[in-house]
Amino acid sequence: MTRVGILGATGYTALELIKLLLRHPGATVTAVTSRQEKTHISSVHPSLSGRLDLTLEDFGAEALAERCDCVFSCLPHVASAESCMALLKTGVRVVDFSADYRLDDAATFQKWYEHEHPDPGRLGKVAYGLPELFGDKIPAADLVANPGCYPTSAILPLAPLLKEGWIETQDIIVDSKSGVSGAGRTPKLNTLFPECNESISAYSVGKHRHQPEIEQILGRATGKKVDVIFTPHLAPMDRGILSVVYCRPTRSVTEEQVLSLLKEFYAGKPFVRIVKHLPATKDTTHTNFVDITARVVKGRVLLISAEDNLIKGASGAAVQNFNLMFGYDETTALL
Predict the structure, then answer these.
(1) So what CATH class is 149-309?
(2) Whole-structure pTM value
(3) Is residue 121 a contact partner of residue 100, using CB atoms and an 8 Å limit?
(4) Can you tell me whether residue 71 is helix, strand or coil?
(5) What is the DSSP code (8-state) at residue 193?
(6) Which residues contact 59 (CB under 8 A, 6 or more apart)?
(7) Which residue, 16, 186, 249, 286, has most beta carbons within 10 Å?
(8) What is the DSSP string of 229-283?
């Protein structure tokens, strides 16, 4: 059995992660931490009553290393990197949910996250946890940067066409809608039920932190400098992301050709489904699948993807990475 610890276990993604790990035949959850709560995990997540008998504790790298082979960090940025650094010194392997190790350089991190990076020497060298594109880097990694939820929905549709040179690297527009759980569990005015129910709104226009992640990771995957305009929206639903990506083709293409390219590129990738119909968020709710389709409209290629932001956009991807790191079948606990 692989012993697992979870940092910041009070949030939505941590709950989804625990539920996945509880059905994993090779994993056992041995520690859960919180910076605020010091109570039984079921007091914070009642759905875990009778399923996980652990009490939330303070973080201590040495103490966790005695009980854990792998730690998932669900902490906020900066705090996560500080904890990851301490854990890595003990030999524990880490999957980091935060944005701390996703970007290539400290200057970009400081610009978008308004903090000096505590571990700049590792930036650009950490495996990015999107197995469909970087699966060869993950098995040997001591630290994996779990992808952002929005970036997954944009990177997976775009990467094949960019790599093959079928679309321009500039003037790419990513229009995304996410459920309210994407904002986390901490109460905020705009995510209160009376504020977001029966309403949809754009936010962080031109300044969302996932924009540089999308651009840099697509650059890593395709070897090309990519320029994206990313606009997220808050949708009145619990979970799910729907992204529509607008691209300019470099050649005359049909919908059938684009779908064929996507199918060929992701052949053998168990969690990417290339579909002919227009995908909806309910098609992927509570699953680790991302559904992708394509349309050609007035000379533009439109790529449409749907995923569960808490599963394929977070905890499911983390378990997928865990499986590759510890030699389990990639689909374990995810189908």
Answers:
(1) alpha beta
(2) 0.96
(3) no
(4) strand
(5) H
(6) 7, 33, 35, 83
(7) 16
(8) EEEEEE-SSSS-EEEEEEE-BSS---HHHHHHHHHHHTTT-TTEEE-SS---GGG
Q: Do 312 and 290 touch, CB atoms closer than 8 A? A: yes
Q: CA 54, 56, 59, 60 torsion: positive or negative?
A: negative
Q: What is the pLDDT of residues 73-131, one digit of tens each?
A: 999 999 999 999 999 999 999 999 999 999 999 999 999 999 999 999 999 999 999 99
Q: Cα separation of 129 and 78, whole Å?
A: 19
Contacts of 27 (CB under 8 A, 6+ apart): 1, 2, 4, 21, 322, 333
Above 90 in pLDDT, residue 186? no
Domain 2-147+313-325, what fold? Rossmann fold (3.40.50)
> How confident is residue 187, by pLDDT bands cut at 50, 70 and 90?
confident
Catalytic residue, candidates 68, 70, 74, 149: 149
Tell me, what's the pLDDT at 185?
Answer: 87
State phi, psi for 94 to the nearest 5 degrees.
Answer: -135, 140
74 has catalytic annotation: no
> pLDDT per residue over 190-205, tens digit each?
899 999 999 999 999 9
Rounded Cα–Cα distance for residues 216 and 133 (Å): 13
Tokens of 6: 């979870």
Give the start-to-end residue ranges of the domains of the chain: 2-147+313-325, 149-309
d(CA 76, CA 296): 39
Residue 245 confidence (pLDDT) above 90 = yes
Do residues 304 and 293 make contact, with C-beta atoms less than 8 angstroms apart? yes
Residues 6+ apart with CB under 8 A from 2: 26, 27, 28, 69, 70, 322, 326
